[in-house]
Amino acid sequence: MKEQGKSGENFPDYLDWSNAFEVLEKAHEQGIFVLVIGPKGTGKTTLVREFAKRQSMKLESINFSLRTRESHLVGSKSLSEGNIQFDEGILIKSMKEGNMLYLDEINAAEADVLLRLDEALDDRRQVVLKESGGEVITANKSWFVISTINPLNHVGTKELPPQLLSRFPIRIRMDYEVAENCEYVTTVQQPENEDLNKTDVKAALTNVPFLKDHELDYSIFLKPFVEDPVKRQKWAWIIFIPMVILIVTAVSNAANLTDGIDGLATGVSSIIGATLGILAYVSSNAITADYLNIMHLPGAQELVIFSACLLGACIGFFWYNSFPAQIFMGDTGSLTIGGIIAAVAILIRMEWLIPILCGIFVSENLSVMIQVSYFKYTRKKYGEGRRIFKMSPLHHHYQKLGMHESKIVSRFLIIGVLLAVLTLISLKFR
After folding, report:
1. What local confidence, expressed as pLDDT, does residue 154 receive?
2. Which of 135-149, 158-172, 363-377 is most confident?
3. Are residues 269 and 176 both part of a single domain?
4. Which positions ≥6 away from 241 have C-beta within 8 Å?
């Protein structure tokens, strides 16, 4: 049996087990926002879409994730034909036009995003656009908000802040079974388990420099073989694990090759360690991560301390390892430093910056590969091996040219500082 809307339009069958439409209609009439709670597959999104059709309201929707930024809600500035303009986000558009706003999986949003939502959802229904000269946006009287979350007992679900929950006095509970799923709630219940505020998220995402979106999903490399995006995410480790092995092996060996003259490896590693600490900090801070358009990694601030320890150890060792060296790190030390650098870069999702940040290591590694490959090629072709460099790795080439060790180290360190600066400013390059 089909139902008929206000405009006489016929709607398709919808099994409203919990009388949700009736509750939504009453909430809409009174201007009270609604929170729909239910596991995946129970028809939460379908419910919202059907209700919007029945009310003849335009539906604006946004699906929250770790990648959702504050700018997605309120908007951002852009340059068009030499003029700076403000492009309104979905939240501002729906408030101005009085449309229905659908906040899907709101509990997946980051803290700064939730804070901006809370500003709009309180009794004043206003947003101060600090991005546009402090303009105050007041919601249209017909503005209506419906939000959805999974039940708190589901894995990966985190509790919303109490003040944000209070913006949704009406809760509709949906389930797979026909039961007492709909309830009218006027009080906010505190979560019984505080551990629900914490969640671990697995994602095959990483930051990529010089790209507009700054993000790369490793599962995209499986697209020619696996069409289903969910399955691609599941099998993304096939790409990610070999990538990790390659990076750790390459950086470790490169650091080992660099440790050929006094103070070179420790000096370069000190610069890299300091830069990784800065990258870890901006990734851990929600404000700076949003500004730089990189992934926000809660807990990454712990790696700032780890990077500081690496920096301190390298500087302390550099004091006695500079020319003429009193102590030497050997293969154990250089391989460990390279492994630490690679591991930290991977943990903060900045491994694609390694070719820039560790440019000295890369050049030392490449010089050996080029020298050996060219020697073998010429020996096979001409009967005798020929060399491109006087000696490899690269720093020995300059030694053979008569350059003093201290001068080589000093110039390599200057280049290392320039590469570190380039690494940091690449975060804003699009």
Report:
1. 57
2. 363-377
3. no
4. none
Is the model's pLDDT at 294 over the cut of 90?
A: no
Q: What total of structural domains would you count in the chain?
A: 2
Question: Taking residues 228-252, what's their average pLDDT?
Answer: 89
Final residue of a structural domain among 197, 223, 255: 197
CA angle 210, 422, 395 (to 5 degrees): 120
144 and 293: one domain? no
* Contact assessment for residue 110 and residue 158, using Cβ atoms and an 8 Å cutoff: no
CATH number, domain at 144? Answer: 3.40.50.300
Mean pLDDT of 47-52: 90
Is 60 exceeded by the pLDDT of residue 194?
no
The residue that leads in pLDDT, 81 or 7, is 81
Is the predicted pLDDT of residue 370 greater than 50, yes or no?
yes
Q: Do 187 and 280 belong together in one domain? A: no
The reported pLDDT for the residue numbered 162 is 81
What digits encode the pLDDT tens for the residues 107-127? 888 888 888 888 889 888 898
Residue 298, domain extent: 237-425
Provide the CA 152 distance to its chain's centre, in angstroms: 24
* pTM for the model: 0.58
